[in-house]
């Protein structure tokens, strides 16, 4: 079997685990962790796809100017942008989690829903 | 071709609220509110001017950011359709915000009102950027900005229900964003482009040679699923009733009318401009959209009938109305897409007005439970009448926006053959009937003879009364000038791809 794409496979496994947890787990902290895993999986995939083995980052050091010797810097730029975006999303999600925990003293989303319904 | 000055307006419409978001976050609350309203008014004027210019210009143009040429740079792309949708979004945003300011004092702490304004500005910026961008990754970034700004708006009324609604909203939307981002990454991987127009060329070339057929189908499924999760298409609608039903009126009005529409417009743009409708149709995704759209129409209406709270009823009706839009997109012809756009605009105008009017009516009785609202239409005449107009528009009474949309759907379905036509006709009939059951029921409840002694007349803010009346006028205009509207949308669609 051909194992050229093991980085991509690892990335998609990570994405799958994170995605399943994000949807299925009821614990808000675990949902946060799952979200971080989902996004890391995607960035790993993007970084793996953006690298071609044997080529260098596009910085001219020894006067080599042929484009074939370098990799495209855009995927790495996208990964950086994406990381910033997911940090912001995580922060908002964690802030909501903290405030829900202070109010209901539980992290279980079903439990919180039950308590909030009871308030009416 | 060198650009005229007015052609920079889309860029200004993105940059202006972005800068204002930073500014309003440090202003005192009164100044922040004034600034926010001023910027929204300016956006409306700019977009109106831009739309009139685009009508006479009559073609697409690209605005390259940083002057890098096409396959590398980042660009905005504007045509008559974007200008029209942008104008409608700006008008509805302005009127919803003016209409809801009255309740902001009550629902949001004084020291945080400037931050609420900053979030509104970010929301405006992200919506306009999503409308005009021609770059898939930029679209993703603004999708996330829109998601986070909306999360802030939902949790602004920081009671338990608001926070819970925010948590549910965030989870569903992070799922949607993840799927959308994966689709963009895979598209970039397959085509080597981030700009939508070159992307489409590469996708069509792949489609003709049948290379990467399975990954391309996967991309389409991920793209459509991701954006339909975010725009609350039925089975993914679970966060909607809480998020719209429990928040402060500006949030309900703005989010229900514009948030999901913004994602839907992005989905249409990706379908037309980045992938191509023939590829979408070959993957049979349009039939799936048609079926889920129709299911959403029925389920949303049935749930709305079961609600005892007026605001939750309106929130559930959003689920049904989003179903209409997806039904139009799933018809798979240009007329269906145009009908979906007419519905997109008319529903935005009607839903924001309904939420504001429902809030005004509920204030008269101190509760939004339907049984307490008996005769409330008499105590707040303005909100009562406006609510009736909105309800009639969504039911599909002639002369109002909703009627135009339903007529367009029927005409578009008539162009299709066999089961699709019959299914759409049946769905339209059943769902109109269901809409009538709960909306006309609510209107009758508002105008029944009150069984309690009528209390003092509720205080109606002049500003909110004027803005809901203006929204009613927008609805009337969408209905009365339906044929030029449909023509503008159809001619815009031909340039859209």
Characterise the protein shown here.
- The complex is a heterodimer of chains A (120) and B (497).
- Chain A has helices spanning 6-24, 28-50, 74-104, 109-118.
- Chain A has 120 residues and is mostly helical.
- Chain A has one domain (6-118): Helix Hairpins.
- Chain A starts with 5 loop residues before the first helix and ends with a helix.
- By secondary structure, chain B is mostly helical.
- Chain B is 78% helix and 2% strand.
- Chain B contains 20 helices and two strands.
- Chain B has helices at residues 9-24, 29-57, 80-107, 113-132, 136-154, 160-191, 196-209, 213-230, 240-245, 249-275, 277-282, 285-306, 310-330, 334-365, 376-379, 381-395, 401-415, 418-446, 462-480, 482-496; strands spanning 61-65, 74-78.
- Chain B has a two-stranded antiparallel sheet.
- In chain B, strand 1 (61-65) and strand 2 (74-78) form a beta hairpin.
- The A-B interface holds A 15, 19, 22-23, 28, 31, 35, 38-39, 42, 45-46, 49, 74-75, 78, 81-82, 85, 88-89, 92-93, 96-97, 99-100, 103-104, 109, 112-113, 115-116, 119 and B 137, 140-141, 144, 147-148, 151-152, 155, 158, 160-161, 163-164, 166-168, 170-171, 174-175, 177-178, 181-182, 185, 188-189, 194.
> In one word, what is the shape of chain A?
elongated
> Tell me, what is the CATH class of chain A?
Mainly Alpha
Assign the CATH architecture of chain A.
Orthogonal Bundle
Radius of gyration of chain A (CA) equals: 20 Å
Radius of gyration of chain B: 22 Å
Number of domains of chain A: 1
Strand segment tally of chain B: 2
The helix content of chain A, as a percent range, equals: 55-70%
Keywords:
heterodimer; A: 120 residues; mainly alpha; Helix Hairpins; 4 helices; B: 497 residues
Outline of the structure:
Chain A is mostly helical.
Write the layout of secondary structure elements.
The complex is a heterodimer of chains A (120) and B (497).
Chain A: H1 6-24, H2 28-50, H3 74-104, H4 109-118
Helix pairs in contact in A: 1-2, 2-3
Chain B: H1 9-24, H2 29-57, E1 61-65, E2 74-78, H3 80-107, H4 113-132, H5 136-154, H6 160-191, H7 196-209, H8 213-230, H9 240-245, H10 249-275, H11 277-282, H12 285-306, H13 310-330, H14 334-365, H15 376-379, H16 381-395, H17 401-415, H18 418-446, H19 462-480, H20 482-496
Antiparallel strand pairs in B: 1-2
């Amino acid at each position: 079997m051909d194992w050229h794409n093991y980085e991509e496979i690892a990335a998609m496994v990570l994405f799958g685990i994170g995605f399943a947890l994000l949807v299925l787990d009821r614990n808000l902290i675990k949902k946060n962790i799952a979200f971080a895993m989902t996004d890391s999986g995607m960035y790993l995939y993007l970084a793996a796809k953006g690298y071609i083995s044997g080529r260098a980052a596009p910085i001219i050091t020894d006067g080599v100017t042929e484009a074939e010797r370098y990799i495209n810097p855009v995927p790495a730029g996208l990964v950086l942008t994406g990381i910033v975006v997911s940090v912001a999303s995580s922060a908002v999600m964690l802030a909501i989690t903290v405030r829900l925990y202070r109010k209901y003293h539980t992290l279980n989303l079903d439990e919180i829903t039950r308590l909030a319904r009871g308030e009416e | 071709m060198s650009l005229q000055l007015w052609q920079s307006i889309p860029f200004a419409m993105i940059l202006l609220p972005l800068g204002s978001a930073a500014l309003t976050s440090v202003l005192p609350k009164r100044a922040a509110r004034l600034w926010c309203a001023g910027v929204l008014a300016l956006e409306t004027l700019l977009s109106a001017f831009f739309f009139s210019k685009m009508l006479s210009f009559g073609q697409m143009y690209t605005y390259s950011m940083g002057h890098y040429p096409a396959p590398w740079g980042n660009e905005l792309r504007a045509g008559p359709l974007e200008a029209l949708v942008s104008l409608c979004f700006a008008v509805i945003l302005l009127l919803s915000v003016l209409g809801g300011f009255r309740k902001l004092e009550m629902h949001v702490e004084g020291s945080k009102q400037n931050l609420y304004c900053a979030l509104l500005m970010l929301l405006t910026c992200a919506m306009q950027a999503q409308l005009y961008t021609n770059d898939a990754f930029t679209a993703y970034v603004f999708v996330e900005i829109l998601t986070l700004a909306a999360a802030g708006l939902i949790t602004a009324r920081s009671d338990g229900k608001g926070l819970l609604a925010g948590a549910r909203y965030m989870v569903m939307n992070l799922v949607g964003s993840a799927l959308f981002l994966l689709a963009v990454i895979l598209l970039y991987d397959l085509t080597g482009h981030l700009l939508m127009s070159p992307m489409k060329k590469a996708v069509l070339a792949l489609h003709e040679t049948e290379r990467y057929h399975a990954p391309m189908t996967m991309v389409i499924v991920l793209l459509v699923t991701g954006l339909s999760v975010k725009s609350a298409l039925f089975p993914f609608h679970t966060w909607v009733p809480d998020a719209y039903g429990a928040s402060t009126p500006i949030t309900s009005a703005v989010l229900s009318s514009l948030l999901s529409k913004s994602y839907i417009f992005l989905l249409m743009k990706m379908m037309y401009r980045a992938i191509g409708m023939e590829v979408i149709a070959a993957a049979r995704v349009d039939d799936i959209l048609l079926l889920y759209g129709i299911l959403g129409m029925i389920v949303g209406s049935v749930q709305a009938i079961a609600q005892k709270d007026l605001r939750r009823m309106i929130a559930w009706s959003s689920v049904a109305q989003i179903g209409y839009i997806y039904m139009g997109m799933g018809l798979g012809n240009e007329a269906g897409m145009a009908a979906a756009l007419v519905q997109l605009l008319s529903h935005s105008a009607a839903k924001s007005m309904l939420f504001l009017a429902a809030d005004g009516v509920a204030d008269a009785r101190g509760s939004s439970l339907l049984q307490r609202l008996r005769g409330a239409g008499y105590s707040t005449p303005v909100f009562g009448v406006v609510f009736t107009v909105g309800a009639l528009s969504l039911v599909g009474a002639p002369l109002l926006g909703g009627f135009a949309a339903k007529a367009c759907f029927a005409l578009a379905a008539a162009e299709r053959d066999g089961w699709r036509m019959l299914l759409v006709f049946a769905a339209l009939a059943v769902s109109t009937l269901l809409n009538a059951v709960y909306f006309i029921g609510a209107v009758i409840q508002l105008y029944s003879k009150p069984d309690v002694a009528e209390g003092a007349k509720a205080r109606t803010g002049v500003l909110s009364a004027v803005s809901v009346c203006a929204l009613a006028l927008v609805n009337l205009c969408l209905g009365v000038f339906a044929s030029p509207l449909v023509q503008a949308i159809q001619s815009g669609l031909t340039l859209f791809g």
